[in-house]
């Protein structure tokens, strides 16, 4: 009888061990499946960027003409309509390639955000999904709005920087330096316009409240105006003023938005 009980207990131990081992294997497979899904999400996003870059490369002349509109006439020192200069045999191609990839990223941005959303959403609660999905569309809208405003403002720092030493130097504006300047300038505006989204997300997590933003209003506005002077590469007075005013307006709109969305 005792021998039968011992054998039964050994059998139960063996069953528990096999069950634990199966659970570990299942957990490991679940992790592998998540990594595999993440890999495919990233791969699809990269495919979207490549397709967008190809489309942008096809229309590279039109894109370059659009981005060089803020350049003043003083930049055309050659007098043949060649406003930008390239150095080296391959620089013209590499500049167009970098420009195409940057524009391709913007074209593929909705797809990238969708892939990120599709990967994260299974782990969210239903109420979090309802909140997160509008955030994706609002984030895209705010980023594009920031870039649009940055393009409008772009002419002021470009004209100021080129005309600043025009009487002392003959400045040859290279394509690589100009488009790098444009990319950082527009990116600064695009990121700044994400401030309401970030603050609202923190409010949804309970980290901050609209009352907190009201109490810190004076410090926040001063900090944003100081940051605006560093975020705008040009030394002209217009860019930091416009960016600072935009940041202040976005901050105040964020307070109202949190009050209506936070329950």
Main pleated-sheet profile = none
Q: What's the pLDDT, averaged over the residues?
A: 78
Q: How many H/I helices?
A: 11
Unreliable runs: 6-29
How much strand content do the residues show? under 5%
Please bin the fraction of helical residues.
over 70%
Intertermini distance? 65 Å
Instruction: Kindly provide the radius of gyration, computed on alpha-carbon positions and rounded to a whole number of angstroms.
Output: 27 Å
| SSE topology string | HHHHHHHHHHH
Shape: flat
Number of strands: 0
Helix/strand/pairing category: mainly alpha
* Count of distinct structural domains: 1
What would a concise description of this structure say?
The protein has 263 residues and is an all-alpha fold. The chain has helices at 2-58, 60-67, 91-107, 109-120, 126-153, 155-164, 175-192, 195-204, 210-215, 217-231, 238-261. The chain has one domain.
């Amino acid at each position: 009888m005792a021998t039968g009980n011992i054998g039964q207990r050994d059998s139960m131990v063996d069953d528990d061990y096999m069950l634990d081992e199966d659970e570990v294997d299942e957990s490991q497979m679940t992790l592998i499946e998540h990594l595999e899904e993440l890999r495919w999400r990233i791969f699809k996003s990269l495919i979207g960027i490549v397709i967008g870059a190809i489309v942008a490369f096809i229309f590279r002349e039109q894109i370059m003409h659009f981005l060089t509109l803020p350049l003043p006439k003083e930049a055309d020192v050659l007098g043949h309509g060649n406003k930008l200069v390239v150095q080296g045999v391959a620089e013209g191609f590499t500049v167009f390639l970098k420009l195409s990839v940057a524009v391709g990223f913007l074209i593929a941005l909705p797809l990238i955000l969708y892939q990120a959303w599709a990967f994260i959403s299974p782990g969210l609660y239903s109420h979090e999904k309802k909140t997160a999905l509008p955030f994706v569309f609002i984030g895209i809208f705010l980023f594009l709005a920031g870039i649009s405003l940055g393009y409008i403002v772009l002419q002021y720092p470009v004209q100021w920087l080129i005309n600043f030493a025009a009487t002392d130097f003959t400045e040859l504006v290279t394509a690589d330096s100009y488009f790098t300047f444009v990319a950082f300038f527009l990116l600064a505006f695009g990121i700044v316009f994400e401030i309401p989204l970030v603050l609202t997300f923190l409010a949804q997590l309970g980290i901050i409240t609209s009352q907190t933003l009201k109490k810190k209003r004076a410090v926040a506005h001063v900090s944003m105006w100081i940051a605006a002077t560093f975020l705008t590469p040009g030394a002209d007075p217009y860019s930091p003023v416009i960016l600072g005013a935009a940041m202040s307006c976005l901050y105040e709109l964020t307070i109202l938005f949190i009050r209506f969305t936070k329950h």
